[in-house]
Amino acid sequence: METDQDRARRRYRKPARADLLAIAAYVLLGIVVCANYWVDIQHRVSSHLPTDHSWFEWLLSHGAYSVRHWENPLFSARQNAPDGVNMMANTSVLGISLPLAPLTLLLGPQVTYAIYLGGALAATAATSYWMLSRHLVHSRGAAFVGGAFLGFAPGIVHHANGQPNFVSNFLLPVIVVRVLRLGEPGRWLRNGIVLGLLVTYQIFINEEMLLLTALACLVIVAAYAVQRWSAVRAQAVPFLLSIGVGGALALLLAGYPIWYQFNGPQSYRGLQGGVFHSWGEDLAAFVTYSRDTIAGSDAVEKTIGLTEQNTWFGWPLVGLALLVIVLLWRISLAARTAAVLALVFGIASIGPFVRLDGTLTEVRGPWSFIPDDLPLVEMMMPTRLSLVVAAVIGVLLALAWDTVASTPAGTGPTGRRVKVLAYAAIALALLPLVPKPLPAMHVDPPPRFITSDEWRPYVPAGRTLVPVPVPSNVHGLSTLRWSALTGHEFPVPGGYFIGPSAEGLGVFGAVTRPTAMLMYVTIDTGKVPDITPEVRAQAVEDLRFWRASVVVLGDHPHEGELRALMTALIGPAQRVDDVWLWDVRSLVG
Question: What span, in angstroms and rounded, lies between the C-alpha atoms of 93 and 210?
C-alpha cells in the first residue's frame, strides 16, 4: 500500500527528459490536428462549424480591440449595432483573447486561432500528464497515455471543430488537484487562495466546463467520504476553511463580471425554447468511432452524431475500461471513485429521453424529472456531461498502464508475455482513436475595399457599415469576418451571438429586421421578393435603426439577386473597387 511518504516523493519529483518528450509529443499532435488550417492559414475555416470558427476569430479580434483601445472587454458595440453584445453572456474566452491580444495584433486572428487551438489541446494533455505523474501514478508512460487521452479524447477533438473553448481545459486538472488537497492541515489559507485564483481564471475561459468540473469534484469528495470517513472527519475543518477562502476570493475577483453577465446590457435569462435541454447523448455513441478519428467515418455522423460527439469511444475501449474497473476494484481507491464518476455522469448525459442509434425513444431519462427553468441547469446540454466520462477513461487508462508497469513480470516467458499482451490491449483500444486533421474549407478573403481601408471616408464615427447580407447565425459568414479581419474598425449590425429577445430570453443572433429578412429570403430562394413602397419605407427605417452610413455588397454566390434587391429598396449602386456600394447618409439623415 502506498504511504504518505511515497505520495510526497512522487509529487515533488524533479522534471526529467521524459516530461519534455511527453510535452513535445503533445505539441506535435496538436499541430497535426490543425494541419488543414496551416496549409492555407488565411483562407481556411472549419468545414464542420464554419460559423463558430469565424465567431472565435471575431472573439480574438475583440480581445485585441479591447486592449488596443482600452475599452471594457465585457461588452462590444462592434457587432449587433446599435445594441451591442454582452460578451460575458457569450463564449467570450476573455482569459485567452486578452493575453493573446499582442499576437492577434501582430499576426491576425487566423494565425492566432490556429496557434490557440493546437496549443490548448497540447496544454490540456500536458497538465493532465502533470496531474497523473505527480499525484496518481508512478509510471511516466502511464501518465503519458492518460494525458494524451485527456487532451485528445474523441469528444474533445470534436469540439476543436470550431469550439476551442471546450478544448481549453488545461486548468481543470490543476483545479481537481487543488480541490483534493484542500484538507491538508496548516495550509487552508494558501490552498484556498490558489483555488480561488484558478477558478477565477477558468470563469473567463469556459464557465460550463468549470461547472462540470465542480460537479465531478463534488461526486469525488462524496465517494471518498463514503470510503474513507475517518480521514474525511480529520480533514473537514481545513477543507471547509479553504473552500470559504477560495469562494470568497473568486467572488471578489469575478463577482462584477458574473453580475454583468446576468444583469448588464444585452443580458438574458435562459434560452428561448430550452433548445439545449433535449440534447442527450446517444447510447450507441459510447461504442462508436468518431468521424475525427482514424477509425471513424462521415456516414455515422448522419445518424447518431447530429448533436455533438462527446463520447464515441468504440467497443474495445469501453470493454477495456470495464475490465480495468473489475480488476482494480478491490485494490484501488482511485479506480472505485472513477467507476462511480463514470456511472453518475454517464446516466446523467442521457438527457430527458433515451436516444438509441439516432432514434429518440419514449423511455424517460433523468433530465425528464428536472425543471427546464432551473438556474444553471437551464443552459446545460446533458450530452456534455459525458465529457466527464471521457476524463474518467483517461484516468483508468493511466491506472491500467501503471498497474502493468509495476507488476513483476516473473522469471519465465509467460509472465513477460502477459505484460506484453496487457500493453498491447491498451494500445489496440487506443489506436483507432488517434485523431485525424480537422476538416477545413476554403473561405474567400474580405473585399479589397474593406482590407485597404477604402471604406473609411464613408463611415464616420458613430455610424455603421452594413454588409450584404447582414451577418446572422445562418447567413453572412463572410461578412462577419470583415469585422474580425479588420480589427473591428467599423461596427456592423446583426451578428453571430446570443442576445435577449423581447421577453428577455436568450435567442441566437440579433432580432431580425425586415430588410435583413429580405436579404435572407433572396439568398434562400434565389429570387427577389416583390418590393412595394411600404417595403422601401421600412428599409429606410431599418437603415436608420442601424445608424447606417454605407451599404456594401461584395462577392457572393447570389450577388446579382442581392444587388437587384438593394437597388429596388434604396436605389442604384456605385462600383467602388471590388464592391457594390450604396452611400445612404443622405437617405437616412
Answer: 13
Write the CA distances from 89 to 84, 204, 278, integer angstroms. Answer: 12, 11, 21
Sign of the dihedral defined by the CA atoms of residues 313, 148, 173, 67, in that order = negative
Selection from 382, 399, 397, 287 nearest residue 344 by Cα: 382
**Nearest C-alpha neighbor of 310 from the set 273, 348, 272:** 348
Among 265-274, 424-433, 465-474, name the one with the lowest average pLDDT.
Answer: 265-274
> Are 248 and 274 within 8 A, CB to CB?
no
First to last CA, the chain: 81
Tell me the three cell numbers of residue 191: 490552498
Whether 273 shows a pLDDT value over 80: the answer reads no
pTM value surpassing 0.90: yes
pLDDT of 277 > 80? The answer is: no
pLDDT interval class at 7 (50, 70, 90): low
Cis peptide before 529 (omega within 30 of 0): no
How far, in Å, CA of 268 to CA of 265, rounded? 9
75's enclosing H/E stretch is strand 75-76
- Cα–Cα distance measured from residue 189 to residue 186, given in angstroms and rounded to the nearest whole number: 8
Residue 299: in which H helix or E strand, if any?
A: helix 298-304
Q: Which helix (H) or strand (E) holds 576?
A: strand 574-576
Closest C-alpha to 334, from 194, 177, 175: 177
Q: Encode pLDDT of 167-185 as tens digits.
A: 999 999 999 999 999 999 9
CB-count exposure of residue 323 (10 Å: 0-12, 13-18, 19+)? middle
Q: How far is CA 71 from the centre of its chain?
A: 25
Percent of the chain past pLDDT 70, that is, above it, reads: 93
Residue 138, burial from CB neighbour count under 10 angstroms (0-12, 13-18, 19+)? middle
β-bridge partners, 576: 579
Q: Please answer whether residues 326 and 316 qualify as being in contact, where contact means their C-beta atoms are separated by less than 8 angstroms.
A: no
Burial class for 458, CB neighbours closer than 10 Å (0-12, 13-18, 19+): buried
Q: Greatest CA span in the chain, whole angstroms? A: 94
Helical segments of 386-513, H only: 386-406, 413-430, 448-451, 477-485
The cell numbers describing 122, all together, are: 497540447
pLDDT confidence of residue 537: 96
Residues 398 and 420: their CA atoms lie apart, in Å, by 16
